[in-house]
Amino acid sequence: MRQIAGEVGVQAGALYNYTPDKQSLLFRLMRDHMDGLLAARAERGDGGGALDRLEDFTRFHIRYHIERPNEVFIAYMELRNLEPENFAVIERLRGEYESELEGILRDGVAEGVFHLTDPKIASLAVIAMLTGVNTWYRPQGRLTLDDVETLYWDMVRGAVGAAV
Amino acid sequence: MRQIAGEVGVQAGALYNYTPDKQSLLFRLMRDHMDGLLAARAERGDGGGALDRLEDFTRFHIRYHIERPNEVFIAYMELRNLEPENFAVIERLRGEYESELEGILRDGVAEGVFHLTDPKIASLAVIAMLTGVNTWYRPQGRLTLDDVETLYWDMVRGAVGAAV
DNA sequence: AGGCTATATGAACGGATGTTCAGAAAAAAG
DNA sequence: CTTTTTTCTGAACATCCGTTCATATAGCCT
Q1: Yes or no, beta carbons of A155 and B124 under 8 Å apart
Q2: Domain A22-159: which topology?
Q3: Would you call A164 an interface residue with chain B, using a CB distance cutoff of 8 Å?
Q4: Which of A48, A54, A42 is nearest to A130 (CA)?
Q5: CA A135, B64, B89: angle at the middle one, nearest 5?
Q6: Which residues on chain A are in Cβ contact (under 8 Å) with B127?
Q7: Using CA atoms, how far apart are residues A15 and A2, in angstroms rounded to an integer?
Q8: Given pLDDT bands bounded at 50, 70 and 90, which one contains residue B164?
Q9: Can you tell me the distance from the alpha carbon of A110 to that of A45, in angstroms, rounded to the nearest whole number?
Q10: Distance from CA of A152 to the nearest CA of B (A)
Q11: pLDDT in tens, B80-90
């Protein structure tokens, strides 16, 4: 708390005009992040075939997460510091987001364009793969964000068994 | 330290007969984990074509990590608590492991069995995907470890552009 | 200008942390 | 059994942490 206050340019006590305690601050940070993610995702049109929707999801996920490295870092590293009740809320939101992808995968299987025996597991695998970009991507690196999106889209398309 | 001592059944001070300080304890834990991982990996035969070697890597990675959830958890969550010098050592070991996979992918591209424009990125993507199993797998779940291995192998094979 | 509300300070609190160390206890060696 | 070595205890240390609160400051309204 003293560190946060320091970066804001204020004493630690002053923070308690804005949050009842540290746990609430962390929770609101993480819930706002998930709300923002779900809202931004909802803005994307969900029309078209499963293949197009999966490509859109892939590019969206990478871009949204890369643009918010701090939130993403906290969302993953501080999960264990949430009180059980707060943890449950965040996990539910995360589940909602995963269901978005799972729905696309199921539709694609139904369309016959994806070949997956377990869309639920596949959605977790794809999200893990995509979120992994945050651990190595550097804006000044050799790849543009567009390059990265395309590379990952190729891999995701293959992973779900879509034709080349 | 008091918590660790408690689980061992000893007072905190006694731990300092076995480690000079907390940082060394964490570092040794993580280095031993990486050493073990590399050693276990080295024991696997590296003969055969790239496709077989990739399948072996996939199954090996999932199984080795699932059998050591605590070490893996610490290896990921406590990275930021390593002093720079120690961090560099762990990162180098991790790089060694990633290079194993990258080598397989490069060989597969050379053989014409994989279709990847960037084997380095692909290796990171595959490892992220595989390690993700640790976040959801539960031994009493609906899938056996063998099921999981096979599901992921199907996805990995597709992701690297291998023929079905 | 004066009063009111919102916000900030700075010291203090109780408790947790990593670490040290003199002395007790336990184990090994003779 | 006695001595020596290894291991453990229990208290103490300095420092850090989240949080509270009386007091001071700042901004706004009339």
Answers
A1: no
A2: Tetracycline Repressor; domain 2 (1.10.357)
A3: yes
A4: A54
A5: 50
A6: 132
A7: 9
A8: confident
A9: 20
A10: 8
A11: 999 999 999 99
Q: Per CATH, is B21-159 categorized as 3.90.1150.10?
A: no
Q: Which residues of chain A have pLDDT under 70?
A: none
Tokens of A158: 């293959």
> What DSSP element (H or E) covers B44?
none
Eight-state DSSP code of residue A48: S
Tokens of B152: 């992921």
Contact across the interface for A121 and B148, Cβ inside 8 Å: yes
CA of B15 to C1' of C30 (A): 30
Q: B-contacting residues of A 52-81, CB under 8 Å?
A: 77, 80
pLDDT in tens, B3-50: 999 999 999 999 999 999 999 999 999 999 999 999 999 999 778 999
Interface contact A161-B160, CB threshold 8 A: no
Whether B125 contacts chain A with CB within 8 A: yes
Is any atom of strand C within 7 angstroms of residue B21's beta carbon? yes
Cβ–Cβ contact A143 with B under 8 A: yes
Q: What is the ipTM of this complex?
A: 0.93
| Geometric angle at alpha carbon B139, from B138 and B143, rounded to 5° | 85
Among residues B137, B70, B68, the alpha carbon closest in space to that of A124 is found at B137
Q: Are the Cβ atoms of A125 and B152 closer than 8 angstroms?
A: yes
Instruction: Give me the residue spans of the domains in chain B.
Output: 21-159
Q: How far, in Å, CA of B24 to CA of B43, rounded?
A: 28
